[in-house]
Amino acid sequence: MQDPRYDVIVVGAGFAGLACARELAVRGPRVCVIDRKQDLGERIHTTGILVQEACDAPLLAGLPPSLLRAVPHVRVYAPNLRSVRLGAHGYRFHTTDTPALMRWLGEQAEACGVEVRRGLAFRDATRTPTGWQVDGVGPTRVLVGADGARSRVARRLGLGQVTQFLYGVEYEFDGMTLREPDALHCFLSKRFAPGYLGWVAQTPTGVQAGLARRYRAGGTPAPDMAGFLAHVAPMTGLDAARRPDSIRAGLIPCGGPVAPMRADGVTLVGDAAGMVSPLTAGGIHSGLRHGAAVGRMLAAHLSGRATSSVPPTPPVPGFAFKRLLRWAFDHAQWDLPIDLLLTAPPMRRMVEQLCFHQRGEQVPDPATAD
Fold first, then answer.
1. pTM for this structure?
2. Could you tell me the CA-to-CA distances from 34 to 3, 14, 212, 218, 310 in Å, in that order?
3. Which fold has domain 6-362?
4. pLDDT digits (tens, 9 = 90+) for 57-83
5. Which of 255, 272, 260, 254 minimizes the C-alpha distance to 20?
6. Phi, psi (deg, nearest 5) at residue 12
């Protein structure tokens, strides 16, 4: 009987896939990552805004400082553009040069012993006595689908699929500087971002501005980026008339974990598994954590060190509170209450908890200083 060429084939060289592959490779299994892109920095869909916890992930250890920019504060705007500036002691968000970051992550995975095969799309896989035969790649004991919210692995092999999305657009402006560059600017507005928000942030290379709205198949207009940029320009210092240097757009999963997430010899990770916040659609930290946890557990099972009490995949979060807030965003989002209540203590505490996962603090506001 043919011995599998690989212990694990990971489909998709995003955050979750590379985190999974790294944890496997450093523990001994033979790992191959395939990705349809020749350049891992091409056609990026993620915003590249990292929470503090993501920066502590093993996959990002040794990340060159030039690829990150610390953003210590969050400024949240009501629809009428009144705002509150928040922070938390020792907590930072980070923006990135996302294409450069993805290229670097691919190189780091290769340095750990992962074989990364670029320009190779997943087409299909068939069951074998020892695992899977992946078209165009070869045999493997285990197959991992890390190929995003529209996972072909999930679709071909009968696993759960993401069904709830936001539709987002993001512009990049090279060399531009915001009036307040040390804050992540978040705009709540049913007019421009029903079901989500708009954002503007300073990056290592310029400014990124994005807008997302609830996606409904067959009836979702594109986000009004021109109108949004003109609306927020007085608050951010953006030149609303300037053409963006690059544009990203795509669907963002927001429905929570899928089911089933695994079957015999195959599992999903990251966006493919729906491991994103149902409220914020933040998936980088969740993807890094979930991919790494699955990698460690698969390595234990492949080596025979795991016991029957060790699950083949990590526990799945319920996101109960965030699911409730997602429902409210979808069905009960009104601008007037936010205009009136954004700066009230209860609303501020809820925003602090969502932003910082802890009690934050209202910080001095340079916009109102004498």
1. 0.87
2. 20, 10, 29, 32, 28
3. FAD/NAD(P)-binding domain (3.50.50)
4. 888 888 898 999 999 999 999 999 999
5. 272
6. 115, 120
